[in-house]
Design goal:
Family: Belongs to the class-III pyridoxal-phosphate-dependent aminotransferase family. BioA subfamily.
EC number: 2.6.1.62
Number of helices: 14
Strand order of the largest sheet: 4-12-11-10-7-5-6
Protein name: Adenosylmethionine-8-amino-7-oxononanoate aminotransferase
Radius of gyration: 22 Å
Function: Catalyzes the transfer of the alpha-amino group from S-adenosyl-L-methionine (SAM) to 7-keto-8-aminopelargonic acid (KAPA) to form 7,8-diaminopelargonic acid (DAPA). It is the only aminotransferase known to utilize SAM as an amino donor.
Largest sheet: 7 strands, mixed
Distance between the termini: 40 Å
Enzyme class: transferase
C-alpha cells in the first residue's frame, strides 16, 4: 500500500471498481464507509449528517448474532490462525471441521447425520438440490429431476437456487426461460388453512413422478418478502413428501440458530427434513461458511449409484478458520439463555413497532423472534428510508415494500427502542 487514502478518495475508487450487491456498475449512490465495528455499533469513517456511530439493526444480513469484535470469537480466530488458516479437504481433514460436523448433527433434528460443508448459503442450496437429484438418479429414477416449492421464497443467487426463488415477485425474472422449470405452489397463507394443504397435496400428487424434492424456508420466507406462515404447513409437507416418495429440504440459512425463537425453524413443527441447509449465523458473521446436512438414507442412496460420490468439492470446503469460529459462535449461543434473549428482543420489537400500524402508508406490522417487519403499501424509497434511519443513528437496509430489522441477539433494550423508532421514521420517509 502507498499513502493513506482519504474518505472521498476511497469512495471514488469504490464507485469506479467495486460492484456492490443488487447495484449498478458504476455505482449510483455512494455507500456508507465503515471504519470499524464493536458490539452492536458500526463506526463510520466520517460523520454523515452529524452521525458517526450506527446501531446495527441488520446483524450484517442476519449473520452477526453476537455483534462485532466479540472477545470469544476474536480469540477463536487468533488461536486457529496460529495453527493453520486453511488446508484442502480432499484427502485431508482437520479438527475444527470435524467438531463442527459433530455439533451440527447434535443440534439439528434427527435423523440428519451427514454434513457437507460449503462456502456460502447459496452454495449449500446448490449442494442440497444436487444431493436430491443424484439420490434419485442413483436409484434408477432420473426422471425425478424437478423441485417443488411455494411462491414467495428465496434460496440464493446461484443458478439452481434461483430456479426455486419466486418466479415473478423475486429478483430473477431476468432468467425466465433459461433456468430449470420447477413446480410452484401458491404462497403459503399466514394462518393454517386446510384448503391450502389440499392444494399442496393435489400439486404434489400430480407431479410426484417427476419431482425429486420439495424445498421451502420453514416458518419465515425471508428475502422473498419477510412473510410468516403456520408451522403446521411443515408437518403437512413432511407427511405429503413421505406419502408421495419425494425428499423434503428445509432451507434454514436465515431461520437457523435461534432467529425465529426456536433453534431451527423445523423445531416449531417438530418435524425433520431429509436435507437441511444452514449458514449465515453459523460463524457469527465472521467468515463465510454454510452446510448441507442429510439423512443416512440420502447418503446411502447416492453411494449406491453409478457415480458413488457426491459430485461437488469447493476449494475452501471445511476451512478450519471458518470452522473454528463457527464452533465458538455456536458454543457461545448455546451456553447462554438464548431463548430468553430472543423472547426479550421479540417483545422489544413488538412494542416498538406496533405504533406503526397507525402510520399512513403502512400495510402491516409483524414480529417473530428476533425479526421485526413494517410492510408498506408501496415500494420503499431505499435511499430515502436508509438516510432517514442513519439520521436516527441506526443502520437498516429496506427492500421492496419492507422496512425490517434482524438485530444481533446482544442488542440491549435501549438500542432496540432506537432501532424500532428509526424503522418507523424510515417507513414514513420511504
Amino acid at each position: 500500500m502507498t499513502s493513506e487514502l482519504s474518505v472521498p478518495e476511497l469512495l471514488a475508487l469504490d464507485r469506479e471498481h467495486v460492484w456492490h450487491p443488487y447495484a449498478p456498475m458504476p455505482g449510483v449512490r455512494p455507500p456508507y464507509l465503515v471504519e470499524s465495528a464493536a458490539g452492536v455499533r458500526l463506526r463510520l469513517a466520517e460523520p454523515v449528517d452529524g452521525v458517526r456511530e450506527l446501531v446495527d439493526g441488520m446483524a450484517s444480513w442476519w449473520s452477526a448474532i453476537h455483534g462485532y469484535a466479540h472477545p470469544v470469537l476474536d480469540e477463536a480466530v487468533r488461536d486457529q490462525l496460529g495453527r493453520m488458516s486453511h488446508v484442502m479437504f480432499g484427502g485431508l481433514t482437520n479438527e475444527p471441521a470435524i467438531r463442527l460436523a459433530r455439533t451440527l448433527v447434535e443440534i439439528t433434528p434427527d435423523p440428519l447425520q451427514h454434513v457437507f460443508l460449503a462456502d456460502s448459503g447459496s452454495v449449500s442450496v446448490e449442494v442440497a438440490m444436487k444431493m436430491c437429484l443424484q439420490y434419485w438418479r442413483s436409484r434408477g429414477r432420473p426422471e425425478k429431476y424437478r423441485m417443488l416449492t411455494w411462491r414467495g421464497g428465496y434460496h440464493g443467487d446461484t443458478w439452481q437456487p434461483m430456479s426455486v426463488c419466486d418466479p415473478e415477485g423475486g429478483m430473477h425474472q431476468l432468467w425466465a426461460g433459461a433456468l430449470p422449470e420447477q413446480v410452484f405452489a401458491d404462497a403459503p397463507p399466514t394462518e393454517f388453512e386446510p384448503a391450502y394443504v389440499e392444494h399442496l397435496a393435489a400439486l404434489l400428487g400430480r407431479h410426484a413422478d417427476e419431482v425429486a424434492a420439495v424445498i421451502v424456508e420453514p416458518v419465515v420466507q425471508n428475502a422473498g418478502g419477510m412473510r410468516f406462515h403456520s408451522p403446521r404447513y411443515l408437518q403437512a409437507l413432511r407427511e405429503l413428501a413421505t406419502q408421495h416418495g419425494v425428499l423434503l429440504v428445509f432451507d434454514e440459512i436465515a431461520t437457523g440458530f435461534g432467529r425465529t425463537g426456536e433453534l431451527f425453524g423445523a423445531d416449531h413443527a417438530g418435524v425433520s427434513p431429509d436435507v437441511m441447509c444452514v449458514g449465515k449465523a453459523m460463524t457469527g458473521g465472521y467468515l463465510t461458511m454454510a452446510a448441507a446436512l442429510c439423512t443416512p438414507e440420502v447418503a446411502a442412496g447416492i453411494s449406491r449409484g453409478e457415480v458413488p460420490v457426491l459430485a461437488h468439492g469447493p476449494t475452501f470446503m471445511g476451512n478450519p478458520l471458518a470452522a473454528a469460529v463457527a464452533n465458538a459462535s455456536i458454543g457461545l449461543l448455546l451456553e447462554q439463555d438464548w431463548r430468553g434473549e430472543i423472547a426479550r428482543i421479540e417483545k422489544g420489537l413488538r412494542d416498538g413497532l406496533e405504533p406503526g400500524r397507525s402510520l399512513p402508508g403502512v400495510r402491516d406490522v409483524r414480529t417473530l423472534g428476533a425479526i421485526g417487519v413494517v410492510q408498506l403499501d408501496h415500494e420503499v424509497d431505499v435511499a430515502a428510508a436508509t438516510a432517514a434511519a442513519v439520521r436516527e443513528g441506526v443502520w437498516l437496509r429496506p427492500f421492496r415494500d419492507l422496512v425490517y430489522t434482524m438485530p444481533p441477539y446482544v442488542t440491549g433494550d435501549e438500542d432496540l427502542a432506537r432501532i424500532t423508532s428509526a424503522a418507523l421514521v424510515a417507513a414514513q420517509a420511504g
